[in-house]
Design a protein that fits this description.
22 strands; alpha+beta; 9 helices; five-stranded mixed β-sheet; elongated
Length: 370
């Protein structure tokens, strides 16, 4: 049975905000659960999730301005099913709406559908089918499959399949392992820096790559990138590695870094000796040539930088401090101008980068151009 439910829009029946819907579902859930919603930026809709419990949440959105759609994603956990059940019940009973399983197929008895669909044995059956499908897809691709979740993406790949084989896991145990890994990555990660993405492009602009940066003196949650830019290399050499390279280095150097799924790495800062070994191993695998001399950075984030080897926290201010260029190795950015507080110029800076504004958070290392 489908995990997507459609409700035909009727102005006389459907007249509510998502926040109002959230309050109605929260009432149904009771005080033991805290329901939250992450709204979409560019369209009506969002993800409903239970704080500290959901894995993928429940997605709601409009379809062709004709249907209000509710989607329970594959690998949803029990908390997500609970949201889905309560939301369907509210929409059917409170707003007198009828459930469609697609744009044409109308369910004549919506209340009976809800009762049948959310029987524990039915939920377990659906989850078994989903887990079997995911494992088959992994075996076919021999690679990671990414799932976007409430807080962080989760990657299941051959490492996960090997874990199942090692444990000789039953169907029920497989579902539990899916849940445990997804829960850890949503709710149990340490409060480490998540380097924000930058996009670099080839000179001919034929391809763009998502990169993240890491430096010696920080603890990181590393995921969701095509290349990792290694800073603090001891010279101006630009070093790019991919996720497979990072995992290879971790194994070779026996680094005490955790790998909670098929891609994510939880890295802790290294002493100078171990960092030097890490950098040298990364240099041997350097993939800069694959990127073909990147010429443009489009920062989504700006947080802690170093300016002339002084730690700087970028923030808000209105006093012009400098104009010029910023470079990271041989990658150079125009800055025009920079602003900050005159009383605390090296601790509170903000700046604009041409073709965009740096207005969130990211780790980097910058120097004033001579």
């Amino acid at each position: 049975m489908s995990n997507t439910f459609y409700f035909e829009l009727n102005p006389q029946k459907v007249n509510f905000s998502l926040n109002y819907l959230q309050s109605l579902i929260q009432y149904e859930l009771g005080s033991d659960y805290e329901l939250k919603i992450s709204l979409f930026e560019k369209q009506f809709g969002g993800h409903f999730y239970i704080d500290k419990k959901s894995s993928r949440g429940v997605e709601v959105f409009l379809h062709e301005r004709k249907f209000f759609v509710m989607k329970l994603n594959i690998l949803a956990n029990e908390a997500d099913y609970l949201i889905c059940e309560k939301m369907l019940s509210v929409l059917v009973k409170k707003f007198d709406l009828e459930i469609h399983l697609d744009e044409e197929d109308l369910i004549l008895d919506s209340e009976q559908l809800i009762k049948d669909y959310f029987q524990p044995e039915k939920i377990q059956h659906n989850r078994k089918i989903e887990s079997d499908v995911i494992i088959k897809l992994i075996l076919r691709a021999r690679n990671n499959i990414r799932f976007d979740c409430v807080n962080n993406p989760v990657y299941f790949g051959m490492d996960f399949v090997e874990l199942l084989e090692k444990k000789n896991a039953t169907d029920e145990q497989t579902i539990v392992l899916f849940d445990q890994i997804m829960h850890k990555l949503q709710w149990e990660l340490p409060n480490y820096i998540k380097p924000s993405p930058a996009v670099i492009s080839r000179k001919d602009k034929s391809k763009e790559y998502k990169i993240r940066m890491m430096f010696k003196d920080y603890d990181y949650i590393l995921n969701d990138y095509e290349y990792l830019l290694i800073g603090d290399t001891g010279n101006d050499e630009i070093v790019f590695i991919n996720n497979d390279d990072l995992k290879q280095i971790i194994n070779e150097l026996n680094l005490p870094w955790q790998r909670p799924d098929g891609f994510t790495v939880i890295s802790t800062k290294l002493n100078q000796t171990d960092w030097n070994k890490f950098v040298e191993a990364a240099k041997k695998l350097n993939r800069q040539k694959e990127i073909d001399e990147p010429i443009r950075f489009m920062f989504e984030v700006t947080d802690v930088f170093r300016l002339n080897k002084v730690d700087v926290l970028l923030g808000k201010g209105n006093i012009p401090l400098f104009e010029g260029k910023i470079r990271c190795g041989n990658i150079q950015l125009d800055v025009t101008p920079a602003y900050g507080n005159t009383e605390d110029t090296l601790n509170n800076l903000s700046f604009q980068i041409k073709k965009g504004t740096a207005n969130k958070s990211m780790i980097g290392k910058i120097f004033m151009e001579e």
